[in-house]
Amino acid sequence: MCNCGNKRNQFSSQQTFKTNDTVRTELLQKKMWPDVSFAYMGKTALTTKGNITGKNYRFNYPGDVQSIDYRDATSMMTIPVLKRVYK
Prior knowledge:
Layout: H1 4-14, H2 20-29, E1 36-40, E2 46-49, E3 56-59, E4 65-68, H3 73-76, E5 82-85
């Protein structure tokens, strides 16, 4: 008698497949470029959300400098009270 059924079941139970969430997380974690620094020039505090990563960035006081993911940098440049800091 052939015992192919058990081998097939054993093989399929060993297979692991990545879900879309896992693949998306891995892609978001890979960075091609370094982060970009921005300084807050407003008067109080500011919380903003990156358009690409969805990460929240918090500037606690005037002059506060935060490291922004390079993928979110373009959208941060549209905020008038944020200025890019060149090192």
